[in-house]
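HUMAN:
Just now I want nothing more than another pair of eyes on a protein record. I would be glad if you read both lines and explained how they fit together. I have put the entry right below:
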Amino acid sequence: MTMFKKNTLRRGRDNRISYIRVKMAENGYISLGTAAAALLFAVTGMTVSVKNQGNTPAWAVSVCFTSLVFSVAALFWGWRALKEKDKNYIMAKIGIAVGGVLAIFWILLSLVGLRL
C-alpha cells in the first residue's frame, strides 16, 4: 500500500510537485473549446461589421450574440473544471481568461451601442 492516491500530486526528491503525471481537468477541454469558438465567432462578426461599415447584416449580429453565449459557456465550464480535485487546470484557466475578456468586451460594446 502506498502513501499516494491514484491521481494525487506527487513530490519528487527535492520536494517539488510534478505536474506531468497529473491528468487534465475534463471540463477544461470543453472550456477551451467553447472559448476558441467564441473567439472565432467574434472575429467573424466584427470582420463582417467592419467590411459593411457598420451596417451589419442580421446573420452577423446573431454570430456576435452567439460569441457572447459561448464566452459565458466557457466561463461556466472553466469554473466547473476548477472544481475537479487533483487535476491540471491550465486549459480551464486559458478558457476562463479568453471567455472573460470576450464577455466583458461584448457587454461593454452593447452598452456603448445603447449609449449608456
Q: What stands out?
A: Strands lie at 10-11, 17-18. The radius of gyration is 19 Å. Residues 28 and 91 are 5 Å apart (CA to CA). The mean pLDDT is 87.
